[in-house]
Design brief:
The protein is mostly helical and 84 residues long. It has 5 helices and no strands. The radius of gyration is 24 Å and the shape is rod-shaped.
């Protein structure tokens, strides 16, 4: 939604912005950007998956090759997860 800057910003700030971008449309990002995957739940999904892989490898002694097949990951990816 577009809003008129003169209705929101103090006059001094509006004049300063006009010096740099008079008549232009500006996008002002939110000051609290979310990290990748937080909104969709992907971050949580991969964290839980990786914890499960680590647990299964170290505590249940499941070989890396088996984990690769079960999770559809390369051996390098599983090693990165396990030894992190």
């Amino acid at each position: 939604k577009y809003r008129n800057a003169s209705e929101i910003l103090p006059d001094s700030l509006l004049r300063e912005l006009q010096r740099y971008a008079s008549g232009e449309l500006l996008y002002i990002p939110a000051d609290t950007a979310e990290k990748w995957g937080e909104r969709s739940g992907a971050r949580t999904f991969y964290q839980e998956r990786n914890e499960e892989i680590r647990y299964r490898h170290f505590h249940l002694k499941i070989p890396i090759e088996t984990l690769c097949e079960e999770y559809g990951l390369s051996s390098e990816t599983v090693r990165k997860i396990v030894y992190r």
